[in-house]
Each structure stands twice: as structure tokens, then as C-alpha cells.
Design a protein that fits this description.
The chain is an all-alpha fold. The protein contains 10 helices and no strands.
Amino acid sequence: MTRGRVIAAAAMTTAISTWVVAQMWLAHHAIDLYRRQDEIGRARLLARRPDVVLAPVPAWHASQWLLPAVAGAVALICCALLSGVLAAGGRRVWAVLLPLAFPLSALVGRLLDGNSLGLAWSMQPTREPWHWFALGVAVDGCTVLSVALLALRVVPRCDAAPSATTSLLRTIPLAVVAIGWWLIGHATPTSDDRILLTRTLLLLVAVAVVVTARLPVWARLASPLVLPFVDPVLTDGLLENYHGSTYYLHRVAVGLAAAAYVGCVPWLVARVRKLSAAGDPGGSGAADKFAVG
């Protein structure tokens, strides 16, 4: 590895570590402020009503601020892995666009209905939460963009993969089925539903682009299992038990369906053509003679 790549790898590690530490501090700060507000409210109530018996304010636990920070760290690391894998597979433009699309997908819904990669942004006790929301989307987007550009510098340049246009077109039937299935149970989608559908479509696109890149088989097979963790709500839900394993398995099923459809359709078409050519080697010549006669 050259000196430039070593410097880029160190810069990428520093950017990820700084972001994770900032998320931990913000989450800890928010939980501490919530507890102080509860203590102030309890003291004011006791000053007005000294005869009231109130339980003490419960102490906060480290999991209340650590788990959201861990969920955001997992999401950012998955974005970095996605950039590195796509760059290694010859899709350098997608290595920047796809990871950047995940934090920006929070803008699809209404203000504060979605979340960016960092969950600590929406935990802050403030009267103007949209400031924290906008700051979170901007910071997370810039962080993912910088990490993706550094990943392009770290990963050696290789031959470009075939155009992803065909792969994207093959995901359209899956997207139609997924959206239709969702609309059956949600006739009037809310803002949260729009964000969920957008991230599901991004998952389909990401799996399709990875599966058709110049990558080893194990990397292609692992993409539907890893890419769902780009959404920090999934990781946080699994850690804090408000999302069961079924929520993750649904995402994996969508990714596996996309991988199977996008990866198997070209093989099946080539196989059918090969069998047709082997079964009728002189078919074209016979057709020409018949046409002349």
C-alpha cells in the first residue's frame, strides 16, 4: 500500500471515529439534560406542594445513550463498507452516490418524521428540534461523502464493471411488487411510510448494483445480509427489543429476492439460448431455404 493510501485510510478511520465519539457525547448529553429537567420539575412541585410524596428521579443507564450511538456507528460503517465494496467492484460512481442517498433519504418525509444515520440528533431536548434535524442530515451527509471519497482513494482502481442500467431495470418489477404489497395494508401512506419505502427501494438498488459488480461470490451473497443495517433504526430496534428479528428478516428477504432475480435472470436467459442453439443447430439455414423456395 502506497503512502497516499495509508494516509487516506487513516483519515477515513479518523472521520468515522470522530463521528462516533460525537454521537456518544450528544446522546449522553441529551439523557443527562432530560434527567436534570425531571429533577427541576420535581423540586418545583415539592416547593408548591410539600405534602406530596414523590419518588426520586430514576438514574439513567448507560444503555440509554450507548445503544443509539452504537446503532449509528453500525450504519456509518456499513456505508463505508458499501463504498469500499463498490469501488473494488468497478463501480466508483455508485460507491459515492448510493451511501450518500441513505442519510439524505430522511428528507423524503416531513420534518422530524425520519432520521439520519445518527440517532442522537433527534434526542436533543430543545424547542427548535428542526435545527438539530437539519444539522444531523448535513453532518451525516458530509461525513458519508468524505468517507466514500477516501474509500475511492484507498481501494486500488480496477476495470470498470458493466453498466448498471440493465440491473436497475430488472429491479423495477420487484419494486412494483414491494410497493403494491405495502399499499395493500397501508392505503394512505404516512410520512414515515414514505421514508420506509424509499429506503426499501435504495436497498433493492444497492443489492442489484453490488450483485452485478466485479466481486467474489461471497461478497455478493453477503450484501443482502449486511446492507439492511445501513438503517440505524433496525440496529437500535434489535438492541433495545422494540423490533424483533422478523423486521430484519423481512429486509433480508427483499435483498435476497433482488439478488436472485438480478443475478439469475441473465444466467437463465443465456442457458435457454444455449439449449435452443444446441437443439436446433441448423435451424437458421433451414429457415433460409424455406424462405427461398
